[in-house]
Amino acid sequence: MPESLVDLVEALSDLAAYRGSWRALREETPLLARRVEELRERADRLDDLLVVALVGGSGVGKSTLLNAVAGDQIAETSEMRPCTDAPVVYHPPGARLDFGEGRYVARSALEHLVLIDTPDSDTVVKQHREQTRRVLDQCDVILLCATAEKYLDEATWSLLRPLRGQRTLVCVETKAREKNDITAHWAERLREAGFDIPPDLFFRVNALHAFDRKLAGNKPEAAELDFPKLEGFLRHELTRERIARIKRSNVAGLLSKMVARLHERVSGMTPAPEELRNMLETAGRDLAKEAFRCLERRVFAEPHLWRFAVGREMSVRARGGAGLLFRCIEALRGLPVRLPQLLPWNPGQKDDTHRAVALLTEGGAVEDDVRVATDAVENVYRAKQSEVGLAFSRAGLDPVGKDDGLEAFQAELARRVTDLLRGPARDRVVRGACFLTSWPVALLADLPTLMLVVYAGCHIFTSYFKGVYLDTAFFYHTAALLALLLTAEYVVLSTGARWIAWRARRAGCRDLLQTLNAPPGLGFQLERALLDEVARLRDVVERLRRGTQTTSN
Questions:
Q1: Pairing of strands 168-173, 202-204
Q2: pLDDT value at position 115?
Q3: How do strand 202-204 and strand 88-90 relate by DSSP bridges?
Q4: Could you please report the per-residue DSSP string of 399-433?
């Protein structure tokens, strides 16, 4: 089998193993598995004998035609009643065949062919019809036998319709006369039924005349019409190369029909995947809006928390006297927060707000540090999930479990907020703290106190050598001025920290809105993954359809 067909069969085999949530495809997998097995069996038999089944209604001369081709009484014949109650298999000696119950005759002179006379297709005996169907499932070529009175037999056509494009069909009028040619009308009706048969595969023969002539040992006569041509077709034209082409064509036809059926099933989703994806985007925006309102009223609406985060970063990086003072005061201000965590009887578990601050100041370590999916947000999610689940069910997709979807949504929301707090938001806090604690700012902040200390030191030094006594008022005034300067420096640094915290909180709100609305939309990750899987499978089916069309051409 060509590599292109092998690849297509393997791709179809992968689809047959599907056990996912797409019901339309999942319901096709049993039939796909059977068809894949049949395709592989046929692919393995490309070099085997060509199996030709003689099919037709009662009294059309199938058995007579087999006897005429064999030149011997192989099958019983009768003009009055059906005689073939089981398949008669005429095959070359040494061939290993298994067509179930029947009579096997190993005398065929047709080296590459197996001829099977099947029970009548219009029989009322269910067992006979099932035997014919089993032979048709395994054959490669169908010799459709008919007469001028019985060539539009619906019972026969009902057996052949499922095999359109999967078997090579040859039409034989077995009791033909020179007049009353049915070929044109027969071909037209076959085309209407979906069978496009080349003109060179229509044969008008008189099988009984040919059989009698062979038994008498005479030469072919004109009364046999196309029988010598049919015999030449079976004996000489069906070479091994042509047999291989016929078998490959049958495999390609079976594959093409299976893929066409599959494409029809999977392409008719209502609502379409694009509509479902748009629904998820709309639901994600609504969730993002509710989550933003919730977070804006909690973590992002408390300036003192951002001020605390900036103060923590400044304390770590503080330089100079003003920085040391700022660090000491911040340590005292943060003592009520840290003290409970140090006591053995109070583990000091953090609430969501303190977890958020920890992310801003320490970077965080896990994605579920902040629980942001409040009851209001979860209620919005459950309402949207019900709408989405109904739409998915109508489209033939199994809805995602409610608890699984909610857990995935909570984890995703926590991850997005966590990444924001320990990412861009923390970076702004750190940059602001680094600016306020940089050496230029520290030197500028310490300059007034440094000048006061230098002035006071110089004055004390000169007074000492001059023998001038300095009264205590000088020291009180200097200490008071130093306290004022240090207070002013702390106020300036604290104001700067508040300004940095305010800017970080405002920018964090903007980033939060962008983060919650960033693609893919918020929530419904499992539903999006299901749609991605559906898109991938539809693409596989579409590629299979194009591949089968190319192979057929």
A1: parallel
A2: 92
A3: unpaired
A4: PPPHHHHHHHHHHHHHHHHHHHIIIIIHHHHHHHH
Q: If you average pLDDT over residues 197-214, what whole number do you get?
A: 91
Longest dimension (CA), the chain: 161
Long-range CB pairs of 221-228, under 8 A, 24+ apart, other chains included? 225/176, 225/178, 226/176, 227/68, 227/203
Evaluate whether 51 touches 35 at the Cβ level (below 8 Å): no
Determine contact, residues 38/254, Cβ cutoff 8 Å: yes
- pTM assigned to the model: 0.72
Answer yes or no: is pLDDT of 89 > 80.
yes
Residue 519: is the preceding peptide bond cis (ω within 30°)? no
Measure the N-to-C terminal CA separation of the chain; round to a whole number of Å. 16
Average the pLDDT over each of 49-53, 198-202, 457-461, 547-551 and give the range with the smallest value: 547-551
Instruction: Give SS3 for 163.
Output: helix
Contacts 24+ apart (CB under 8 A), 213-216: 214/68, 214/71, 215/71
| Distances 460 to 410, 456, 478 between C-alpha atoms, Å | 68, 6, 11
- The CATH number of domain 45-239 is 1.10.620.20: no
Helix (H), strand (E) at residue 38 = helix 29-44
Whole-angstrom Cα distance, residue 495 to residue 492?
5
Q: Which helix (H) or strand (E) covers residue 51, if one does? A: strand 50-55
Q: Any idea which residue has 């339309």 for tokens? A: 24
Q: Are 228 and 510 in contact (CB under 8 A)?
A: no
Which is it for strands 88-90 and 113-117: parallel, antiparallel or unpaired? antiparallel
Question: Whole-angstrom Cα distance, residue 48 to residue 240?
Answer: 9
pLDDT at 266: 86
Distance CA 184, CA 309 (A): 92
Q: Looking at 121-130, 198-207, 333-342, which range is the least confident one? A: 333-342
Q: Is residue 302 classed exposed, middle or buried when 0-12, 13-18 and 19+ CB atoms within 10 A define those classes?
A: middle
Quote the CA–CA distance of 155 and 167 in Å, as a whole number.
18
Hey, where are the domains in the chain?
45-239, 273-522
Q: How far apart are CA 259 and CA 541, in angstroms?
A: 7
Kindly report the three-state secondary structure assignment for every residue of 165-207: CCCEEEEEECECCCCCCCHHHHHHHHHHCCCCCCHHHEEEEEH
Give me the chain's average pLDDT, please. 84
Q: Which two tokens stand for residue 393?
A: 């069910």
Q: Where are the beta strands (DSSP E) in 175-296?
A: 202-204
Q: Look up residue 401 and give its two tokens.
A: 């479990």
For the beta sheet containing 202-204, the strands, ordered from the edge strand earlier in sequence to the opposite edge, are 103-105, 88-90, 113-117, 50-55, 141-146, 168-173, 202-204
125: its two tokens: 């005996």
Distance separating alpha carbons of residues 482 and 479, to the nearest angstrom: 5
Average pLDDT over residues 368-383: 75
